[in-house]
Amino acid sequence: MTQRLDQFATAGDLFQPMLQQEELLKTSGLEHSLTELVKLRASQINGCAFCIHMHSHDARKSGESEDRMQLLPAWRESPLYSARERAALAWTEALTLVAETGAPDADYAVVAEHFAPREQVALTLLIGAINSWNRIAIGFRTPHPAAREASAA
Asked: Would you give the end-to-end CA distance of the chain in angstroms?
């Protein structure tokens, strides 16, 4: 895979609003572990290698277990996730695949059960943001760092 364009070198100033939103979301009240699971799950669905790499490394640094990261695509079948995390993951999948799902009322009802209204907004903005980042990285073929992993193989 060859990178099409270095988007940050080309137009880094255009990313400032997105970067500011990222900082605001860090203080939104959502747990860091939940935030990383959401980012990782959306990135898995979208097939964004750069973002999967980044968020799996960030989650690991924050103490996330290997089992929870590896079982994330099968979160419905695993007891390792809390009810709140399950609600967030269902909402992540519903919004990431919104053209197919239409954001079902049942998924929203579970989110509303586990998240206060402000948290619902933060979670939805978080999901929208990671989907935007995925599309940017995929569109410009942003490569993930591979030197360390390649040498280990």
From this structure: 19
Q: What are 83's two structure tokens?
A: 């009810």
DSSP letter (8 states) at residue 54: H
Contact 54, 62 (CB under 8 A): no
AA identity, residue 104: P
Residue-wise burial string across 30-60, b where 16 or more C-beta atoms lie within 10 A, e elsewhere = beeebbbbbbbbbbbebebbbbbbbbbeebe
Residue 29: which pLDDT band, with cuts at 50, 70 and 90?
Answer: very high
- Region at 5 (left for phi over 0; alpha for psi -120 to 50; beta for the rest): beta
pLDDT for 46: 98
